[in-house]
């Protein structure tokens, strides 16, 4: 791996290696979001931000492909967990309002 080919904040990842798995990674991303192209592109972009910024560090403990697929999976889980949490909070809030009005 040449020095100019590695990511600055993730020196064990080469740009070439990411390019080689990009197609498969996009397919995985599509499968995580119900095959919505726009959402899959957002997931990929966020995963690449995680890798480029060094927030997700590859340390050669697994295959690069396994690691990067895991990053996409985690980004997808995080993205889809937020609306569920909001909905649960809203449901609890509304339930509490109903109980307070009914007991008055």
Topology record:
Blueprint: E1 6-7, E2 10-14, H1 15-32, H2 37-53, H3 64-102
Antiparallel strand pairs: 1-2
Helix pairs in contact: 1-2, 1-3, 2-3
Textual characterization of the structure:
It is a single chain. With 104 residues, this protein is mostly helical. The chain has one domain: Rna Polymerase Sigma Factor, Chain: A. 71% of the residues lie in helices and 7% in strands. Strands 1-2 form a two-stranded antiparallel sheet. Strand 1 and strand 2 form a beta hairpin. Helix 1 crosses helix 2 and helix 1 packs parallel to helix 3.
**Name given to the CATH architecture:** Orthogonal Bundle
Low-confidence stretches: none
Number of domains: 1
Mean pLDDT level: 87
Radius of gyration: 19 Å
Order of helices and strands: EEHHH
What share of residues are in beta strands?
Answer: 5-15%
Give the helix/strand class: mainly alpha
Largest beta-sheet details: 2 strands, antiparallel
> What's the shape?
elongated
Beta strand count: 2
The number of helical runs is 3
Using brief descriptors, characterize the structure shown.
Rna Polymerase Sigma Factor, Chain: A; 7% strand; two-stranded antiparallel ribbon; mainly alpha; 104 residues
Task: Write a compact overview of the structure shown.
With 104 residues, the chain is mainly alpha-helical. The chain has helices at residues 15-32, 37-53, 64-102; strands at 6-7, 10-14. It has a single domain, classed as Rna Polymerase Sigma Factor, Chain: A (Orthogonal Bundle).
């Amino acid at each position: 791996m040449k020095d100019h080919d590695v990511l600055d904040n993730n020196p064990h990842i080469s740009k070439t290696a990411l390019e080689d798995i990009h197609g498969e990674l996009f397919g995985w991303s599509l499968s995580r979001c119900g095959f919505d192209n726009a959402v899959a592109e957002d997931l990929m972009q966020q995963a690449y931000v995680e890798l480029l910024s060094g927030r997700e560090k590859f340390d050669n403990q697994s295959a690069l492909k396994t690691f990067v697929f895991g990053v996409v999976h985690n980004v997808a889980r995080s993205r889809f967990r937020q609306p569920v949490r909001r909905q649960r909070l809203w449901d609890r809030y509304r339930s509490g309002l109903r109980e307070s009005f009914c007991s008055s």
